[in-house]
Design brief:
- Helix 4 runs antiparallel to helix 5 and helix 4 crosses helix 7.
- The termini are far apart.
- The chain has 15 helices and no strands.
- The protein is mainly α and about 300 residues long.
- The chain has helices at about 5-10, 20, 25-30, 35-55, 60-70, 85-95, 105-115, 125-130, 145-165, 175-185, 195-210, 215-220, 225-240, 255-280, 290-300.
Length: about 300
């Protein structure tokens, strides 16, 4: 492999096939496609919240979300009916953080997830309701016996994930790449202006939002495409004029891919709003455990 080819390879991720997207283990186990989308979204939210509470860098959180997504795709992947999204989220975060400069102990991971899955958590609770209630610490206290049982589940789930994704743990996130592209385009002067700061901030915000996409953009497109699309959309929003030339081609991104990603990024906010509203109307949250999912499936079938 030439140095140039190796460099390009190091900036790319393994992508999923159309067959892996259309046929998943969860669907084969009877989980409807719309509920599967909700479960993935809940898993991404849970991972993001846990990463913030653990004070992890966004890059590690993003990598963990991608690992979670990889685990649940394809007929040979994990199933929400067998592998609870809460357990897979915790194991993904633990797995990704382990070789980084921010490793987490199993107790730290499990304490955070015990809180986030408890009634005291803000996840799945409207802001008004959360502010009006007093969280009960006993609702998320993890006893020693519960910790040992949860630790066993965490380590076992980590092994299951590694086998399902064939130990493909490399995840290149587009965040640093986007900042490099902005510097290449000479739109990040030193010292930065207020407008260039806004451009960089909006670019990174779009990349973080893309992690919630129901189209699994991080599994279907390379980091370069995501970075370019985020820059393009952010520049349009803040009124920043980039080169009149087709600058995205310099970064090996075609116009068709750019157009698709811009539309996809623009639609995520509305989809997230609808998704949250759907579960608020139901008076609860998306199921995070296998028993909760079974209850939801019976309710959907009219048998629960």
């Amino acid at each position: 492999m030439t140095p140039e080819a190796h460099e390009l390879y190091s900036l790319s991720n393994p992508l999923v096939t159309p067959e892996q997207l259309t046929t998943t283990s969860s669907q084969l186990d009877g989980v409807p496609a719309d509920l599967e989308q909700s479960l993935r979204f809940a898993g991404a939210q849970l991972t993001q919240a846990a990463g913030i509470l653990l004070q992890l860098p966004q890059e590690i959180i993003a990598q963990a979300i991608v690992i979670l997504y990889r685990f649940y795709v394809g007929a040979e992947g994990g199933s929400f009916k067998i592998n609870a999204v809460k357990d897979v989220s915790a194991a993904s975060l633990y797995l990704v953080a382990k070789p980084s400069f921010h490793p987490q102990t199993t107790r730290s991971i499990l304490n955070v997830y015990a809180y986030l899955s408890s009634p005291a958590s803000v996840l799945g609770t409207s802001p008004d309701r959360f502010q009006s209630c007093q969280p009960d610490p006993e609702s998320y206290y993890l006893s020693e016996s519960a910790y040992l049982e949860s630790r066993s589940t965490l380590l076992q789930t980590e092994t299951i994930i590694l086998r399902a994704i064939a130990f493909t743990t490399q995840v290149i996130t587009p965040h640093h790449l986007a900042l490099t592209y902005l510097q290449t385009l000479a739109v990040l002067p030193s010292p930065p202006t207020s407008k260039s700061k806004s451009l960089a901030k909006r670019t990174l915000a779009h990349l973080n939002t893309a992690l919630l996409s129901p189209q699994l953009l991080y599994l279907t497109h390379q980091p370069a495409g995501l970075a370019v699309a985020a820059i393009y959309l952010a520049a349009r929003e803040v009124g920043f004029k980039l080169s009149r030339e087709e600058w995205w081609e310099v970064f090996d991104v075609e116009r068709e891919e750019l157009g698709f990603l811009v539309v996809a990024l623009s639609s995520i906010e509305g989809w997230v709003r609808e998704e949250r509203g759907k579960w608020e109307v139901r008076g609860g949250r998306c199921p995070l455990t296998v028993p909760e999912l079974e209850v939801e499936l019976r309710r959907s079938d009219g048998t629960g």
